[in-house]
């Protein structure tokens, strides 16, 4: 374990197309408690309520959905920052759902996370050098030429001036900060990076820089991304496959173009049609579906199909029976709906 | 995205990576931490510098008290009822206040700030030694309070759950104590207990130790609450998650990630706690539960002098002024430190 | 809200109970022999034994504690003294003083009035001046009025109560003779004429209020400046409200909310005795009672005052929380 | 004699009994009175006020002009003792009444003495318990078991309503003086409210309580059932006394010095505070100043229970080393303290100037140092106990400094005032050097020597009395004999000799006596500081010049 | 209802100016670190019934401009220069009190974050009523009725009940609706919406945008919509202003700018947005970061990030600030040293294919 490069070779070499991460029935219920001394549980926020998906080696799975639907929670569960209340997470064949912190250590190198907020994801009291060196520090890894050299290489790779090693995060702009976060995530040559809305907080021009960077890195390092975002355009741009979440459930999952061109779930339809297209003429062309109301509270989600309260196609059965996520249309395309759409949107 | 002014000052873009070229006029700025920025701001703040000077001076006085007193020529506890020639310095027929010097203060070439009524002790020497008492007690109490408060607050905030509940209740209880009253009542008691348990005689050193202990013991809860709140919120910041996702354990997170972010709070709180403890020590000595006789303490001096302010106003004036200045200096410095550390900056 | 209040009250009882335990065991575990104190000037060995027996000082602490608490828990109070000379100590019974064997509750009751007058009067003063000054400073941020207020506040925060109190006496009583020498008889509003009452308290009020007023000036100023930068203030202006309305209806209301909390807690703390001010002006309040008890090792009195003071603090906490919920609709009490 | 040079004759030179009667007199006290219940009233302040409410069998009268104190009959018309001095019979005057008009009976006095045996009312003078031969284990009338089937203490008998007889455990030559203690006053059994009696004692004196608000105010008004003719002691000139509690001494001084109309008929129980002394010399104040001393003497006792202080040379070194001038200055200077050379008051029969040590007021450093070398003192630490109050601490500091100057290391131990004596009386908690003071309960040298230097009469083994802080055991064999001497003059001589003998061993060093300076309101007349009540102006004599 | 003086003399006729005309507006903030030049000579026009979009990166001075129009810089440290003509009144030189009267009636504003923009302690309804009562001498009941009407109009279900809710009890979308209702209380002639949907989910954003469109038709007010999101302006605005470093770099009709952009910055913007219809190709990003407003680059403020500097003809890009020059006969104008012809050519050759 001398250099980061040999490091990478020593570890099981991922083969493109293999399943890297498999999530089954993943659940996260946040207990809602009451009481001052003796707390009792009075309910649960069902942030993630039984979802299944896989991420293959080197691919990008996009995860979209409205605010509060459980995207970040999923990301945090996958990186084991949060303890699942149900289901399993299998990484390269190992069940890591409930591994202890010690046992998790080796996997920490393989799964990394990038956060949304470039301000809160960097410790303002540490220099960039320290921040990017933290993975080596924590994992106790020595690199040839010292940590500093490794860090500077990383900085150069993500487009930061290596001489800025000693600067503090507040001296960087949002986009640069996001690069610092990416460098940190890259340090240990992970196989999977969970990107929790890494570009939502950035200006369009900067957003494009970062998206391009992520693209390049994926190619260079054979990375797989679990890419969380609420912006359907960004997701379309970066993902190989896309999963749509609604209230803690995956309602539809498919290959990218399949999903955008042949969406089956009404919710996906609504989402797609709500995106304002930067093209004055298209406004008239596109069909408009306007959802009413807001996402219901995950504290007590609607019975049956969770989308039925906002769905124009809802019938009695939707309240009684929860539609399973079933394959529909092209292979790998599944949707959870009693009355899937037949037409295409875009 | 809020762009702070400092932010806007570093106008360079991303650096050589695919097509992102370095902007031409990327200015080379020294890597400056928030602490360094604060320090730079502090250095520009004249009031802060002045008060820091006063504080350093006071600390020097406290440390070198014996030397200073050697120069002035009179010990803090020496009675000087007569001068070298045997002439009485006190008007013994009228209650024993100094019969010379400005406003009956006994000020003279020998006794720079006059002498104490009835005993003739040198006020300058007592003032100098009183500095020791004040600072020692205040600093000791502060260190203790900050230490306990930080540890308890961080532990409660980091581990949450039942640990937090337990410590939170403890803080509630500590905060519900009428602390001044208990400090007052407990100082003698604790001194007694210490005597009993450790066989330490109720000396002045013990008394001061007890004062520090009691002040610290009743002072930590408030800070702990603040630290707990901050820890809770810092813990939610994503850089903590980042560290955890790299496999960092609680110790790493607490000491490397959270503690440095608490430092400004702790610093501000410390600079504010010190003057309040200086006042508290003076108050306790004033009330008669402070240090032991004949140890000089400003509060004790004020308490004594309060009987004499009419015939010997300067006796009250000097310790009062000393107390005022030190507290003022610490408060000023505290304000400046807070402003300097405040990212929103700008006192005006 | 109702359930919340009930729960908080229960919690208060719990906290007070814990405090009583801690205080009791802290103090009663002292080596200072209370019997010696009661025994007085001529104290024989037999007499000490007698006192110990009569007062039950030799019983295990737990038993003594139980006896003490029985006077607080039992609505009928408890009986003090020996067979034949027992007196009934009505609820709440805090035992009796070792110094003068009066029931502690009687002393506390009679000392409470001056403290309440002192604290509330000062509170009115500091609240008024503190908020006013802070407000003016905030609205004239950067102007001379602001600088003056900030300076005054800093001065006030740093001015030791000890010195300020004596300064006031010296200037207003002794030198200028604007205020007459204090007369304890005026210390109760119910017994004296209001003018005497005010003259009695005016200097103590000022003394006590100085530090607080200074603190409140700073607090109000800081809060107000923060609040005036809030988005909703911009909204209020965008509606075309007059500046006056913006400041008083929108700004002040939000800026004062945290002050209400702190005010409640400060006042609650002071109701347990403003020791130093009471000592300077020899006001026979709870503070004076407690310092005398401390110097005289009068444990039951100390215990009583501590419990009462703690009660005020905890109670103030509850009141403040409820009040906060009333002011700020975002706070939901459950 | 007491008082300093400008002692004047009580502001106006009126003789007792004459002068204006009436008006309201205001008296300031720092604290509330401790007890008004006669059986608990044993402190100077309360005692002075108690004199207005409570009459005792005998009472001391201080003549402000001749400065003599004499024992006079009060309730008792006459009294006699048996030869053995252990049985005393008192006969009451005629027509004595309580404030409600009911007659005073001898049994009521017996009842009150008995009350004093009750553990809950034990703050009063200890003499009855110590002297009267009640049955063993007697604990007063309230204890159902102890009251002996209603007969109470068998050693006290009341053959009729006007006669009361006390049987004593041992001969007491001065029992008639002891009978001036407030224990020996009547309390009607049906009015007794036990521990609550304190708040509203039934008056036999010229005044009765109108209102009493604890810690605030006590108002006395005339008791119309009191008969001046039966009372040679009390002039009772004002119509009303208002005692105000809680005002700061120094503040009260200022008011009195200012002499505003509101304060013309006022004075304060506390003497002028040192800081206000200079003002007493100004023209408009000078005439209103009276000064007086009391019978109390201060001293520092050397606790011989401590091995180190068993060394006589060390004790002598301490004696010589003390700078009493500094001590005096620390206690407020010449006008507030005077250096004394004996714990026996100078105007008391049996006083003799010190001839043993003849230490100069400022001490004799050379001699002290020499003695110290002889004593073989090697710098061991001694603790000096002092009550925790301003002047006392200052004084202790001055002693500390003086001793330090000759090389003795002294640590000061402050003990809260209320705890002070009990702490020092306890062998285990007493300090090495004990600051103490003693005020004789009645003006006799016996009431100085016995308590300050004598043995514990209740103990079989030779043991120092409670107030013998030096724990000196010298001369204990002689005390019994002296106590038995019947002839009063001979007794005085014997006591004096005994005192001298014991003082040879340097058990203590006398320091100062307190002097008090009072400023009176301009309307006050006939104020004589009474040395028997701590130098406080005698309330039974005081009056106003005119209605205010 | 509105200022009578304004009604008597139709001022736009008197002055010959557009309904809203911003002329050479400058806003600067003195700070500890130096003078922040937030807006540097901004000019644009807007007629009634029209919608103007303003886009630009963060910090380009969009919000500062809107606050200047609202007169909300008055009394702060900000130094405002230039002219703002609204319905015949010049706002920059106007007394604060007069300006106050115009707020709410002539011009009102929808803020980005409706939660922090509403007072947390007052009921939604009362905050609406308050806006009405300052300018209208009517009873509370009347105002209340109007508030409920408007709440209903913006699509809040059972408005009479929700009237007495507090802001925190509303969801994000409802808050923004309430905010819009509040801004419409006095029938303002100009409505400024500063990023009205940035904090909202796409589905809710779509609802709000539809609502605003409908309302404009109904109230015929002029709207300025400020946003980052080119999609939003494409859908909402007729005219567009692209801001960079406190200046307009390109202005014109929406179509002109979307289909015939002439400024490299606009090209960059259009190139960097991923499109929902697009594929996975590389995005065309703008290199570097937005400029510091304290040390604005000399010359064209965009030049450090510009990929087309070499095409500039008249003088270097670093020399002086290019003029905002009209292109052709339309209102289309751009601020660039590259000749218009060249720009057109560059766009067609290099940019358009990648869009
Ligand atoms: N620690 C927690 N305790 C309780 N509830 C939580 C916690 N974390 C998240 N939630 C709730 O779980 C739900 C899902 O949250 P999550 O952050 O995963 O949403 P999201 O899809 O990432 O939303 P956004 O787009 O706003 O980031 C939300 O309703 C949130 O309130
Ligand atoms: N009160 C102020 N004091 C100092 N600088 C200010 C002030 N208000 C705004 N600025 C600065 O002016 C510049 C423009 O700000 P503005 O808020 O108009 O940007 P914006 O275009 O609205 O950006 P965003 O898209 O982030 O809302 C920023 O650099 C900002 O820091
Ligand atoms: Mg999220
Ligand atoms: Mg903005």
From TrEMBL, chain A:
<feature type="domain" description="ABC transporter">
    <location>
        <begin position="21"/>
        <end position="272"/>
    </location>
</feature>
<dbReference type="Pfam" id="PF00005">
    <property type="entry name" value="ABC_tran"/>
</dbReference>
<keyword id="KW-0547">Nucleotide-binding</keyword>
<keyword id="KW-0067">ATP-binding</keyword>
<dbReference type="InterPro" id="IPR013563">
    <property type="entry name" value="Oligopep_ABC_C"/>
</dbReference>
<dbReference type="InterPro" id="IPR003593">
    <property type="entry name" value="AAA+_ATPase"/>
</dbReference>
<dbReference type="GO" id="GO:0005524">
    <property type="term" value="F:ATP binding"/>
</dbReference>
<comment type="similarity">
    <text>Belongs to the ABC transporter superfamily.</text>
</comment>
<keyword id="KW-0813">Transport</keyword>
<protein>
    <submittedName>
        <fullName>ABC transporter ATP-binding protein</fullName>
    </submittedName>
</protein>
<dbReference type="Pfam" id="PF08352">
    <property type="entry name" value="oligo_HPY"/>
</dbReference>
<dbReference type="InterPro" id="IPR003439">
    <property type="entry name" value="ABC_transporter-like_ATP-bd"/>
</dbReference>
TrEMBL record, chain B:
<keyword id="KW-0813">Transport</keyword>
<feature type="transmembrane region" description="Helical">
    <location>
        <begin position="166"/>
        <end position="186"/>
    </location>
</feature>
<dbReference type="Pfam" id="PF00528">
    <property type="entry name" value="BPD_transp_1"/>
</dbReference>
<keyword id="KW-0472">Membrane</keyword>
<dbReference type="Pfam" id="PF12911">
    <property type="entry name" value="OppC_N"/>
</dbReference>
<comment type="similarity">
    <text>Belongs to the binding-protein-dependent transport system permease family.</text>
</comment>
<feature type="domain" description="ABC transmembrane type-1">
    <location>
        <begin position="131"/>
        <end position="334"/>
    </location>
</feature>
<feature type="transmembrane region" description="Helical">
    <location>
        <begin position="206"/>
        <end position="227"/>
    </location>
</feature>
<feature type="transmembrane region" description="Helical">
    <location>
        <begin position="314"/>
        <end position="334"/>
    </location>
</feature>
<keyword id="KW-1003">Cell membrane</keyword>
<dbReference type="InterPro" id="IPR050366">
    <property type="entry name" value="BP-dependent_transpt_permease"/>
</dbReference>
<dbReference type="InterPro" id="IPR025966">
    <property type="entry name" value="OppC_N"/>
</dbReference>
From TrEMBL, chain C:
<feature type="transmembrane region" description="Helical">
    <location>
        <begin position="151"/>
        <end position="178"/>
    </location>
</feature>
<keyword id="KW-1133">Transmembrane helix</keyword>
<feature type="transmembrane region" description="Helical">
    <location>
        <begin position="254"/>
        <end position="281"/>
    </location>
</feature>
<dbReference type="InterPro" id="IPR035906">
    <property type="entry name" value="MetI-like_sf"/>
</dbReference>
<keyword id="KW-0472">Membrane</keyword>
<feature type="domain" description="ABC transmembrane type-1">
    <location>
        <begin position="112"/>
        <end position="324"/>
    </location>
</feature>
<keyword id="KW-0812">Transmembrane</keyword>
<protein>
    <submittedName>
        <fullName>ABC transporter permease</fullName>
    </submittedName>
</protein>
<feature type="transmembrane region" description="Helical">
    <location>
        <begin position="198"/>
        <end position="219"/>
    </location>
</feature>
<feature type="transmembrane region" description="Helical">
    <location>
        <begin position="301"/>
        <end position="327"/>
    </location>
</feature>
<feature type="transmembrane region" description="Helical">
    <location>
        <begin position="9"/>
        <end position="28"/>
    </location>
</feature>
<keyword id="KW-1003">Cell membrane</keyword>
TrEMBL record, chain E:
<dbReference type="InterPro" id="IPR017871">
    <property type="entry name" value="ABC_transporter-like_CS"/>
</dbReference>
<keyword id="KW-0067">ATP-binding</keyword>
<keyword id="KW-1003">Cell membrane</keyword>
<dbReference type="GO" id="GO:0005524">
    <property type="term" value="F:ATP binding"/>
</dbReference>
<dbReference type="InterPro" id="IPR003593">
    <property type="entry name" value="AAA+_ATPase"/>
</dbReference>
<dbReference type="InterPro" id="IPR050388">
    <property type="entry name" value="ABC_Ni/Peptide_Import"/>
</dbReference>
<dbReference type="Pfam" id="PF00005">
    <property type="entry name" value="ABC_tran"/>
</dbReference>
<keyword id="KW-0813">Transport</keyword>
<dbReference type="InterPro" id="IPR027417">
    <property type="entry name" value="P-loop_NTPase"/>
</dbReference>
<comment type="similarity">
    <text>Belongs to the ABC transporter superfamily.</text>
</comment>
<dbReference type="InterPro" id="IPR003439">
    <property type="entry name" value="ABC_transporter-like_ATP-bd"/>
</dbReference>
<protein>
    <submittedName>
        <fullName>ABC transporter ATP-binding protein</fullName>
    </submittedName>
</protein>
């Amino acid at each position: 374990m001398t250099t980061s490069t040999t490091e990478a070779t020593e570890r099981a070499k991922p083969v493109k197309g293999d399943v890297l991460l498999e999530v089954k029935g993943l659940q996260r219920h946040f207990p809602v408690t009451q009481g001052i001394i003796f707390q009792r549980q009075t309910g649960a926020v069902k942030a993630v309520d039984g979802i299944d998906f896989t991420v293959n080696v080197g691919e990008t799975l996009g995860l979209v959905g409205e605010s509060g639907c459980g995207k970040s929670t999923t990301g945090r569960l996958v990186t084991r920052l949060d303890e699942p209340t149900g289901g399993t997470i299998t990484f390269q064949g190992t069940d890591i759902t409930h591994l202890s912190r010690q046992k998790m250590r080796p996997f920490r190198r393989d799964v990394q996370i990038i956060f949304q907020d470039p301000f809160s994801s960097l410790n303002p009291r540490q220099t960039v050098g320290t921040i990017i060196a933290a993975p080596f520090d924590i994992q106790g890894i020595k690199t040839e030429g010292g940590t500093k050299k490794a860090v500077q290489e990383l900085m150069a790779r993500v487009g930061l001036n290596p001489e800025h090693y000693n600067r503090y995060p507040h001296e960087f702009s949002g986009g640069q900060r996001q690069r610092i976060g990416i460098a940190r995530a890259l340090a240990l040559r992970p196989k999977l990076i969970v990107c929790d809305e890494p570009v939502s907080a950035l200006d369009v021009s900067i957003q494009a820089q970062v998206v391009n960077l992520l693209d390049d890195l994926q190619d260079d390092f054979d990375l797989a991304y679990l890419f969380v975002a609420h912006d359907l355009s960004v997701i379309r741009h970066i993902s190989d496959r896309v999963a749509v979440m609604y209230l803690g459930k995956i309602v539809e999952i498919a290959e990218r173009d399949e999903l955008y061109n042949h969406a089956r779930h009404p919710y996906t339809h609504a989402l797609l049609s709500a995106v304002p297209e930067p093209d004055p003429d298209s406004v008239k062309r596109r069909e408009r579906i306007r959802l009413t109301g807001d996402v219901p509270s995950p504290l007590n989600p609607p019975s049956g199909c969770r989308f039925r309260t906002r769905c124009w196609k809802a019938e009695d059965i939707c309240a009684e029976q929860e539609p399973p996520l079933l394959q529909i249309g092209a292979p790998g395309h599944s949707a959870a709906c009693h009355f899937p759409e037949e037409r295409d949107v875009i | 995205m809020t762009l702070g002014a400092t932010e806007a000052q570093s106008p360079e873009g991303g650096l050589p990576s695919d097509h992102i070229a370095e902007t031409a006029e990327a200015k080379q700025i020294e890597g400056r931490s928030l602490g360094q920025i604060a320090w730079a701001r502090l250095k520009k703040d004249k009031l802060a510098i002045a008060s820091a000077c006063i504080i350093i001076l006071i600390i020097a006085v406290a440390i070198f008290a014996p030397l200073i007193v050697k120069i002035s020529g009179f010990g803090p506890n020496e009675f000087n009822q007569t001068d070298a020639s045997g002439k009485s310095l006190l008007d013994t027929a009228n209650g024993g206040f100094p019969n010379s010097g400005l406003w009956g203060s006994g000020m003279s070439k020998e006794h720079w700030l006059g002498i104490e009524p009835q005993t003739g002790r040198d006020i300058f020497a007592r003032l100098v030694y009183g500095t020791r008492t004040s600072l020692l007690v205040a600093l000791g109490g502060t260190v203790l309070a900050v230490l306990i408060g930080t540890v308890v607050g961080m532990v409660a905030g980091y581990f949450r759950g039942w640990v937090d509940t337990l410590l939170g209740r403890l803080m509630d209880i500590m905060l519900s104590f009428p602390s001044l009253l208990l400090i007052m009542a407990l100082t003698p008691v604790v001194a007694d207990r210490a005597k009993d348990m450790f066989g330490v005689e109720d000396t002045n050193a013990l008394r001061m130790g007890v004062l520090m202990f009691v002040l610290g013991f009743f002072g930590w809860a408030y800070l702990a609450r603040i630290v707990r709140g901050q820890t809770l919120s810092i813990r939610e910041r994503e850089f903590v998650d980042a560290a955890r996702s790299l496999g960092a354990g609680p110790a790493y997170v607490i000491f490397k990630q959270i503690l440095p972010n608490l430092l400004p709070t702790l610093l501000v709180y410390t600079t504010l706690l010190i003057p309040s403890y200086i006042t508290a020590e003076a108050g306790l000595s004033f009330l008669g539960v402070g240090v032991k006789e004949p140890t000089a303490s400003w509060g004790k001096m004020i308490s004594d002098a309060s009987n004499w302010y009419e015939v010997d106003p300067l006796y009250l004036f000097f310790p009062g002024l000393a107390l005022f200045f030190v507290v003022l200096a610490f408060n000023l410095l505290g304000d400046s430190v807070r402003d300097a550390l405040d990212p929103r900056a700008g006192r005006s | 809200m109702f359930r919340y209040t009930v729960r908080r009250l229960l919690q208060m009882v719990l906290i007070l109970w814990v405090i009583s335990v801690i205080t009791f065991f802290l103090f009663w575990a002292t080596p200072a022999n209370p019997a010696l104190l009661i025994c007085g000037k001529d104290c024989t060995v037999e007499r000490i034994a007698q006192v110990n027996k009569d007062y039950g000082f030799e019983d295990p602490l737990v038993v003594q504690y139980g006896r003490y608490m029985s006077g607080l828990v039992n609505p009928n109070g408890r009986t003090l003294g020996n067979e034949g000379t027992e007196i009934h100590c009505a609820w709440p019974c805090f035992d009796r003083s070792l110094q003068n064997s009066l029931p502690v509750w009687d002393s506390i009751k009679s000392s409470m009035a001056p403290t309440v007058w002192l604290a509330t009067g000062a509170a009115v003063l500091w609240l008024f001046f503190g908020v006013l000054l802070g407000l003016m400073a905030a609205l004239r941020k950067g102007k001379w009025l602001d600088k003056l207020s900030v300076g005054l506040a800093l001065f006030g925060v740093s001015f030791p109560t000890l010195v300020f109190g004596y300064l006031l006496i010296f200037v207003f009583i002794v030198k200028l003779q604007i205020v007459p020498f204090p007369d304890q008889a005026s210390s109760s509003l119910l017994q004296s004429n209001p003018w005497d009452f005010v003259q009695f308290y005016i200097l103590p009020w000022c003394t006590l209020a100085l530090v607080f007023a200074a603190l409140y000036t700073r607090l109000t100023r800081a809060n107000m400046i923060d609040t005036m930068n809030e988005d909703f203030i911009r909204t209020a202006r965008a509606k075309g409200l007059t500046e006056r309305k913006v400041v008083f209806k929108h700004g002040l209301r939000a800026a004062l909310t945290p002050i209400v909390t702190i005010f409640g807690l400060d006042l609650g703390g002071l109701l347990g005795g403003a020791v130093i001010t009471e000592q300077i002006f020899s006001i026979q309040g709870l503070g004076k009672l407690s310092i005398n008890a401390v110097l005289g090792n009068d444990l039951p009195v100390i215990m009583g005052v501590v419990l009462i003071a703690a009660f005020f603090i905890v109670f103030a906490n509850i009141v403040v929380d409820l009040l906060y919920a009333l002011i700020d609709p975002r706070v939901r009490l459950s | 004699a007491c008082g300093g040079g400008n002692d004047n004759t009580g502001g106006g030179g009126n003789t007792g009994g004459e002068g204006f009667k009436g008006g309201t007199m205001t008296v300031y006290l720092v604290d509330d009175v401790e007890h008004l219940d006669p059986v608990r009233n044993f402190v100077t302040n309360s005692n002075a006020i108690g004199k207005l409410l409570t009459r005792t069998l005998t009472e001391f009268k201080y003549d402000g002009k001749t400065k003599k104190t004499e024992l006079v009959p009060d309730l008792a018309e006459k009294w006699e003792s048996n030869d053995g001095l252990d049985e005393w019979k008192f006969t009451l005057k005629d027509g004595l009444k309580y404030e409600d008009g009911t007659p005073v009976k001898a049994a009521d006095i017996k009842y009150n003495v008995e009350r004093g045996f009750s553990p809950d009312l034990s703050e009063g003078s200890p003499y009855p318990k110590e002297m009267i031969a009640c049955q063993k284990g007697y604990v007063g009338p309230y204890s159902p078991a102890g009251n002996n089937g209603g007969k109470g203490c068998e050693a006290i008998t009341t053959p009729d309503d006007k006669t009361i007889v006390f049987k004593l455990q041992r001969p007491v030559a001065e029992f008639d003086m002891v009978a001036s203690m407030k224990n020996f006053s009547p309390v009607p059994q049906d009015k007794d409210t036990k521990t609550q009696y304190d708040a509203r004692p039934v008056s036999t004196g010229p005044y009765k309580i109108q209102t009493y608000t604890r810690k605030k105010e006590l108002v006395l008004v005339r008791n119309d059932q009191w008969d001046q003719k039966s009372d040679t002691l009390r002039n009772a000139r004002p119509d009303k006394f208002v005692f105000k509690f809680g005002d700061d001494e120094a503040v009260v001084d200022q008011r009195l010095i200012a002499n505003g109309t509101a304060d013309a008929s006022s004075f304060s129980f506390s003497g002028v505070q040192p800081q206000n002394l200079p003002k007493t010399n100004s023209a408009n104040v000078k005439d209103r100043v009276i000064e007086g001393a009391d019978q109390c003497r201060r001293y520092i006792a050397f606790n011989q229970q401590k091995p180190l202080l068993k060394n006589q040379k060390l004790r002598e070194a301490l004696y010589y080393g003390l700078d009493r001038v500094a001590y005096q200055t620390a206690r407020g200077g010449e006008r507030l303290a005077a250096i004394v050379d004996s714990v026996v008051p100078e105007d008391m029969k049996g006083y003799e100037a010190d001839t043993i040590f003849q230490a100069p007021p400022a001490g004799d450093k050379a001699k002290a140092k020499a003695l110290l070398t002889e004593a073989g003192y090697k710098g061991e630490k001694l603790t000096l106990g002092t009550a925790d109050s301003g002047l006392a601490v200052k004084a202790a500091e001055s002693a500390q400094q003086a001793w330090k100057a000759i090389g003795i290391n002294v640590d000061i131990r402050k003990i809260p005032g209320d705890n002070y004596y009990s702490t020092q009386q306890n062998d285990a908690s007493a300090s090495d050097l004990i600051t103490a003071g003693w005020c004789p309960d009645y003006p006799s040298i016996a009431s100085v020597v016995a308590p300050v230097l004598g043995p514990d009469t209740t103990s079989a083994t030779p043991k120092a009395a409670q107030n013998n802080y030096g724990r000196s055991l010298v001369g204990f064999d002689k005390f019994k004999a002296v106590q038995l001497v019947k002839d009063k003059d001979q007794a005085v001589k014997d006591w004096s000799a005994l005192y001298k003998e014991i003082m040879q061993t340097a058990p203590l060093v006398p320091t100062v006596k307190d002097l008090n300076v009072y400023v009176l309101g301009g309307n006050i007349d006939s104020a004589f500081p009474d040395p028997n009540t701590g130098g406080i102006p005698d309330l039974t004599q005081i009056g106003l010049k005119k209605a205010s | 209802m509105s200022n009578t003086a304004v009604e008597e003399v139709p001022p736009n006729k008197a002055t010959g100016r557009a309904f809203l005309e911003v002329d050479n507006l400058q806003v600067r903030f003195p700070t500890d670190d130096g003078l922040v030049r937030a807006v540097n000579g901004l000019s644009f026009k807007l007629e009634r019934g029209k919608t103007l979009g303003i886009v630009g990166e963060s910090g380009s001075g969009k919000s500062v401009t809107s606050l200047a129009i609202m007169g909300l810089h008055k009394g702060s440290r900000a130094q405002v220069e230039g002219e703002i003509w609204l319905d015949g009144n010049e706002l920059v030189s106007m007394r604060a009190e007069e300006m106050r009267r115009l707020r709410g009636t002539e011009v009102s504003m929808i803020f980005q974050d409706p939660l922090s923009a509403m007072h947390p302690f007052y009921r939604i309804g009362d905050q609406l009523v308050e806006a009405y009562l300052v300018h209208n001498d009517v009873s509370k009941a009347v105002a209340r009725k109007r508030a409920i009407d408007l709440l209903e109009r913006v699509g809040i279900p059972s408005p009479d009940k929700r009237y007495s809710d507090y802001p925190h009890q509303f969801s994000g979308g409802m808050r923004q609706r309430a905010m819009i209702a509040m801004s419409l209380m006095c029938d303002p002639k100009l409505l400024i919406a500063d990023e009205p949907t940035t904090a909202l989910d796409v589905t809710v954003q779509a609802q709000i945008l539809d609502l605003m469109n409908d309302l404009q038709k109904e109230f015929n007010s002029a709207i300025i919509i400020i946003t980052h999101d080119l999609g939003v302006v494409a859908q909402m605005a007729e005219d567009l202003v692209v801001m960079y470093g406190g200046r307009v770099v390109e202005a014109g009709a929406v179509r002109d700018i979307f289909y015939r952009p002439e400024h490299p910055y606009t090209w960059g913007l259009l190139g960097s947005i991923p499109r929902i219809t697009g594929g996975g190709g590389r995005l065309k990003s703008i290199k570097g970061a937005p400029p510091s407003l304290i040390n604005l680059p000399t010359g064209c403020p965009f030049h450090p990030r510009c990929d087309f500097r070499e095409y500039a003809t008249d003088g270097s890009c670093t020399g002086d600030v290019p003029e905002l020059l009209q292109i052709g006969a339309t209102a289309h104008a751009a601020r660039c040293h590259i000749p218009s012809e060249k720009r057109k050519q560059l766009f067609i050759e290099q940019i358009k294919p990648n869009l």
